[in-house]
């Protein structure tokens, strides 16, 4: 029985397995520039975040209809359930779809259909986090937020992702203020490739309650003190960090040092179809590479429920 856990850093578009990409392409009459799923999988060799993002956005061409988005989410939930995920807070990137002419309603309705069925079908509760692409303009984020207004009851939080360096959190102050005014929770990717200063901005300018990645936090002792004091969770993604060359080897991952520093660290999968593993695989990888014992693993799972946007009763049910 895998350890029951919550997954808090998961891009639904990053769960698109090569086989499903080809199946959706066939259904939609779309041709992919790869002979087959194996050839596509061989292209998954990244030198940094941008080299991954280029392929990640290109492959989204196969996602066009509500059914496509529903099938994507259902396939993720099936894999996640096998790995002990009981609750998932799931990112999606509306601008990556609306830029291709796909209506935001198609995205949200399709995902919601599968997620709503997910509790019964897979035993997983879910929430949706709408991310803004930080390499697009602040105005584009504002327009996206307005377009999402009819669907806000289906969205629990806003997030910030895509190419980090050169696109600091402060660029998105206004859209985060609007999200807060609508009662949405706030998270942001920060400190994946970008410096600790971006994590400070995410906290102080955007008001985030949780930092996605925060990998570089330990570079700044004052920042660590702040994160510990306010019990701000970090959603770490160890296999992603290696595949995107943020760290050289999984043995170099700062997870253990972060736990020793008193940080509320969680382990997640980011883009599991691209990075070689789902949530449980990430737990297994850090256990083996860092020599974590069972109690530490259980502590990570406990952290995941504490860091989730669940109230007390929901958290008990999810565990
Ligand atoms: N970082 C930033 N943006 C992303 C990622 C990531 O790891 N995955 C999908 N969008
Ligand atoms: Zn991410």
TrEMBL record:
Question: Reaction catalysed by this chain?
Answer: adenine + H2O + H(+) = hypoxanthine + NH4(+)
Specify which residues bind substrate according to the UniProt entry for this protein: 271
Active site annotated at which positions? 192
**Keywords from the UniProt entry:** Hydrolase, Metal-binding, Nucleotide metabolism, Zinc
Organism's domain of life? Bacteria
Q: Establish whether keyword Metal-binding is in the entry.
A: yes
Q: What GO terms are given for molecular function?
A: hydrolase activity
Question: Which SUPFAM superfamilies does this entry report, sorted A to Z?
Answer: Metallo-dependent hydrolases
According to its UniProt record, which protein family does this protein belong to?
Belongs to the metallo-dependent hydrolases superfamily. Adenosine and AMP deaminases family. Adenine deaminase type 2 subfamily.
The identity of this protein, by name, is: Adenine deaminase
Species name for this entry? Streptomyces fildesensis
């Amino acid at each position: 029985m895998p350890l029951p856990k919550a997954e808090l850093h998961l891009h639904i578009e990053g769960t698109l397995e090569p086989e499903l990409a080809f199946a959706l392409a066939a259904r939609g009459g779309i041709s992919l520039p790869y002979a087959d799923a194996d050839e596509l999988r061989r292209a998954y060799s990244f030198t940094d975040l941008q080299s991954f993002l280029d392929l990640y956005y290109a492959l989204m061409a196969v996602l066009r209809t509500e059914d496509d988005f529903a099938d994507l989410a259902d396939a993720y939930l099936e894999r996640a359930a096998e790995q002990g995920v009981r609750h998932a807070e799931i990112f999606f990137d509306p601008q990556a779809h609306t830029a291709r002419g796909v209506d935001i309603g198609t995205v949200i309705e399709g995902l919601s259909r599968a997620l709503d069925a997910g509790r019964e079908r897979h035993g997983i509760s879910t929430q949706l986090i709408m991310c803004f692409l930080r390499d697009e303009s602040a105005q584009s984020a504002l327009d996206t937020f307005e377009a999402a207004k009819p669907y806000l009851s289906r969205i629990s939080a806003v997030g910030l992702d895509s190419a980090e360096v050169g696109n600091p959190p402060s660029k998105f102050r206004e859209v985060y203020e609007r999200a807060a005014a609508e009662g949405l929770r706030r998270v942001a990717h920060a400190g994946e490739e970008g410096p600790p200063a971006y994590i400070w901005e995410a906290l102080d300018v955007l008001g985030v309650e949780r930092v996605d990645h925060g990998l570089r936090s330990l570079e700044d002792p004052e920042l660590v003190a702040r994160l510990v004091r306010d019990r701000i969770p970090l959603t770490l993604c160890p296999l992603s960090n290696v595949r995107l060359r943020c760290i050289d080897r999984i043995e170099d991952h700062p997870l253990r040092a972060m736990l020793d520093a008193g940080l509320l660290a969680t382990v997640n999968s980011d883009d599991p179809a691209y990075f070689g593993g789902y949530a449980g695989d990430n737990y297994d990888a850090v256990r083996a590479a860092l020599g974590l014992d069972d109690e530490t693993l259980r502590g990570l799972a406990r952290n995941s429920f504490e860091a989730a946007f669940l109230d007390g009763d929901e958290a008990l049910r999810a565990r």
